Amino acid sequence: RWIPPPSEYAKINVDAVTSKNSATASIAAVARDDSGAFLGASTVTVTGMSDPETPEVPACRGGLALASDLLLQKVRLVSDCANAVRSIQGEGLGPHGHIIREITATMKNFPRIEFIRERREANQEAHMLARGALFDSCGRRVWLFNPPEGVCIQHLLIP
């Protein structure tokens, strides 16, 4: 189930999915306010990735891009990938150093932003959106007013 952010924060859940057969990856971000109201969502689909962990840091970057699109000020960005969150929190650049540096620079545009890890069960909307985007053509898609099909799933939200 979705876990609400602190009061006055927006929460952006991000996730990444890969297909080993087609070497395609998709990332997704879903933004909600502290009451669970839909704010926006985005997906990015790329080719040339088949390792499941490779697109997780770019998924965090995609979440930041959505936060910028929505002009959010207080953001809690959530991933279920502990390695991605640790890398962004400064515990190591690893193979994604260039993306981590971009994320760190972009974070300065937000008055309040935090990256945290939550268990996979709390990240189902972003996971399902990313999984559906595997079949899209390459590129970025953004939903700013109405959620994409399959995202506004009330039973996943805590009442």
Automatic annotation (TrEMBL):
Against CDD domains, the record matches this protein to:
RNase_H_like
One of the record's GO molecular function terms: nucleic acid binding
**What are the residue boundaries of the RNase H type-1 domain, all occurrences included?**
13-131
Q: Which InterPro entries match?
A: RNase_H-like (IPR053151), RNase_H-like_dom_plant (IPR044730), RNaseH-like_sf (IPR012337), RNaseH_domain (IPR002156), RNaseH_sf (IPR036397)
Q: Which domain of life is it from?
A: Eukaryota
Q: Which PANTHER family match?
A: OS05G0353850 PROTEIN, POLYNUCLEOTIDYL TRANSFERASE, RIBONUCLEASE H-LIKE SUPERFAMILY PROTEIN
Its protein name is RNase H type-1 domain-containing protein
Task: Give the species.
Answer: Panicum miliaceum
The upper taxonomy is: Eukaryota, Viridiplantae, Streptophyta, Embryophyta, Tracheophyta
